[in-house]
Amino acid sequence: MGLGLEVGVALSYVLALVVILIIVMLLLKPLKLILKLIINGIIGLVLLLAVNFIGKFIGIKIGINIITIIVAGFLGIPGVILLIIINYIL
């Protein structure tokens, strides 16, 4: 009879640890998304700076603002190409 009580307590601890693990995983997921968006934004900014530096010699200039950084961050190189095309059209 004493053995059954110890198993019940052990199962309670295991269940509590699983619940805590699930809660921690749910709380970390948005942080990972925010970190990924920040990193992509930084990469987009670097791409825009590179295009402006190289484009200075051939006459291409893209304004750097929050919208262009977001487009370049989300879409990467195709986003920068899209911004160059839009800049050329406008």
Which labels suit this protein?
0% strand; mainly alpha; 90 residues; rod-shaped
Question: How many distinct helices?
Answer: 3
Q: H/E series, N to C?
A: HHH
Q: What is the end-to-end distance?
A: 82 Å
How many strand elements? Answer: 0
Please tell me the overall pLDDT: 84
Largest sheet: none
Structure in words:
This protein is 89% helix and 0% strand. By secondary structure, it is mainly α. The longest helix is centred in the middle third of the chain and has 57 residues, at 2-58. The protein is rod-shaped. The N and C termini lie far apart (82 Å). The relative contact order is 0.10.
Short summary:
This protein has 3 helices and no strands.
Please give the structural blueprint.
Elements: H1 2-58, H2 66-75, H3 77-89
Helix pairs in contact: 1-2, 2-3
